[in-house]
Amino acid sequence: MPDLPFVRPSSRRKQASGRRRCGEVPVNAPRIRDRGRGRVCTVDHVADSPAPGGTPRYRQLARHLAERIVDGEFAVGSALPHEQELAAEYRASRGTVRSALASLAERGMVAARQGSGWYIRSSRAHHGFAELRLFAQWARSKGMRPGGQVVASESAPADAHEARALRVPVGVALLRVTRIRSLDERDVMVERTAYAPWLAEFVAAIPDDEPSVVAALADRFGIVTAHAEHTIDAVAATSADARLLGVRRTHPLLRMRRVSFARDGRAMELGDDRYLPGTVAFRVHSSLTRSPLSRTTAHGSETAHGSETAAGGKAPERDAP
What we know:
Blueprint: E1 20-22, E2 31-34, E3 39-43, H1 57-70, H2 83-90, H3 94-106, E4 110-113, E5 117-120, H4 129-133, H5 135-141, E6 146-157, H6 160-166, E7 173-183, E8 186-195, H7 197-204, H8 213-221, E9 225-236, H9 239-245, E10 252-262, E11 267-275, E12 280-284, E13 293-297
Antiparallel strand pairs: 1-3, 2-3, 4-5, 6-7, 7-8, 8-11, 9-10, 10-11, 12-13
Helix pairs in contact: 1-3, 2-3
């Protein structure tokens, strides 16, 4: 069964080019069930399928299913609709649905039971690399309102540190962008990013109010962040940090530095993110095969063991491999 243009069945958000109507049902209209109200609804045809090289459909479907789970539409321990039902609901092939469910299983949200389908394991995802890079998506999954504002953007020559990290000559022009990130209208992070010359024109084409530059690069231009190197430590706020975050100079901040790379190995960006204490913490889960890094709230709301730490009010948490 070929995949049709993607339609999200949730009634909670409007589609950019499609709209859901409940009540009167035109003859032969595509139908889905409004689980929250028990009504049969229709979905206008959505013609904007993902652009070539953009986000794969199974990832879109997985993202929307995850939102429905986080929103409480499916209770922990309950069964999801069968794959065939989801395929009809989303107008997707069963293969696409199966790939989406497998993605959610990797994140610890669902599990398959032989002979009885898929069940909800948790309403909280164990975020992997993609979610770590998507601040806005992570915030929404925690029930918080993400925000952001570009406070500075300039073309400037690369210094020695930037040149080494981005593998470019010293003095070559880079795009430097400084953003303030907020949670529930409270400024919590200063994000400073230097973009490699080959990427600068794409970033410059993205509106300043775009919630996620990473997602926009993938969705609009097919430029995907394949891997990154992260360094996390604690630093004292500089005068610039203090002014932007409204704290005193030398106030402690949690810093995450990163260098991101594209699929072809080219360096994309050099980032320096500085968080207020008590807002977020990072958790590392180690195993013999993989050690993903995930973001969690500073109060440890999604962690099973709440040990104390210095940087975010909590201590590094070690999960048994």
